[in-house]
Fold ABC transporter ATP-binding protein.
Amino acid sequence: MTYFRKILQFAIPYKRFAILNIICNIFYAIFSTLSFIALIPVIQVLFDKTRRVAIKPVWDGTFAELKDYGSDYFNYYITERVNEDEVGALMLICGLVVLLFFLKNLFGYLSSFFLTFLRNGVLRDLRDAMYHKILGLQIAYFSEKKKGDTISRITADVNEVQNSFLSILELIVREPLTIIFTVIAMLTMSVELTVFVFVFLPISGFIISVIGKQLKKKSNLAQEENGHFLTIVEETLSSLKIIKGFNAEEKFYARFQESTNRLKNILNSLVNRQNLASPTSEFLGIFVIVIILWYGGHMVLVEGTLNPETFIAFMALAYNILTPAKQISKASYSIKKGNAAAERILSILETEPTIIDQPNAEEKESFEEKIEIENINFKYEDENVLKNFSINVPKGNTVALVGQSGSGKSTIANLITRFYDVNEGFIKIDGKDIRDIKKKSLRNLMGLVTQDSILFNDTVRNNIALGKTDATEEEIIEALKIANAWEFVKDLPKQLETNIGDSGNKLSGGQKQRLSIARAVLKNPPIMILDEATSALDTESEKLVQKALENMMRNRTSIVIAHRLSTIQNADNIIVMQKGEIVEQGRHAELLAKDGTYRKLVEMQSFE
């Protein structure tokens, strides 16, 4: 219940609906009990003429006599009606019973009506909180997680918590109150018989608890397997070309079947255990009813200590306990499943981000002088990816980073944008450590174009205006022209309003990359970071993209991570990297003249 109590904090904004639900449940429990109690005087007056009261009773003012006074007065009222018109009296009594059952069901509906707003409000707020947390967590967190598992937590687990929400509110309000009011009524009829009944209830409760002992464990396994299953689906959809190209359909289908078979077996065990709760509780309830019949019948027929009409109403009340008792047993299972789901949700919500703004972090509106990288060391896991790395990038200069794969080039881009923090050393902008600048302010100074053109299943306009949502159509078209992208966008069916498909798959690689460049151009940042922006393009597309990059980098400070010579030969400074360290640096002609690592890279065309 620890995790579930934390989730219940999300219900605080909807407490008015919880209060209304509780009030309606109180009335539901009251009318549920009264509807059965009303049967006693009905039976007494209609079928036992000796119980008719001809003289109007008088209350002596003591609380102890209140019950007898209320019963006698009701009998007197019914007797008067019977004496006047027996059929009319019967209709009156039947109408009273119908009214009580109507009020019971009305308040039952109203309690569910108010609970709906609470449940769906919590469902929305939980999803909003999880998505907001996902956006705020560092990129490193998700490099260790399966996407499918995260999707499972924000969908299936949140739904499970929502369903459990209904169960717990019924568990703590409606059903217990129904049982309490019913037991009070039973005690007023016969203390001895009520005590006898409750000797058997703890035995029933123990048996039911044994059935559900491992439910939370099974539920955890089901939710974890559901996450694995969604991961396979996500990987399949995003990698369908490769799967088909390597004829790996059967292999992936086998993996999928393994997961769904495991999920089937876990769910079979889980659902069968849960389904066992209802018939078990009902059988045990009927068993208790039979014992009441035997013991209460003995009191009526042999001992004569209980009236037959009271015993009939007592039996009805005893059966009235069965439904809420059964609901409580089902709710307890649901809560165990919900608690397992809540644990998985809270593992995300309670994760503290490691890339955060310092308490004294400042806003930085402009870039004036230079970027300094001083003696930084960085590692993703155990081994350093960068070692004592230092460079200066003066304002307006273009600095290129080259080297073989794994030399640490892209890591520099991740550190400057503060997707990761350095382990040692400093990265400064205009002399200020980037950790002392607010993340949003820092990233406002930068434009990013990556090797993979990350586009969204949306229109051209919305993809381009991602960093500047208030951009005019003229500004967007100008950015597209600078990026050499307007030439194909103007020919699209709806131009700027054309949807480009999932990940922009309706466009070619070169077109997607030029849209990515246009997005960065429109943002118009003073610092541009290009992470292998042309490495995945064919020669013709590369020329168009290269022209777009030159347009974009004009009068800007640029850090270019490159594989292709054409991107960097005009750079002010070329940094040659090897295993996280700088081995050479200088302009293109100077490095060729040195006849060192850079020249070998050029000759091998390993970055072309």
Remarks:
- The radius of gyration is 37 Å.
- The mean pLDDT is 76.
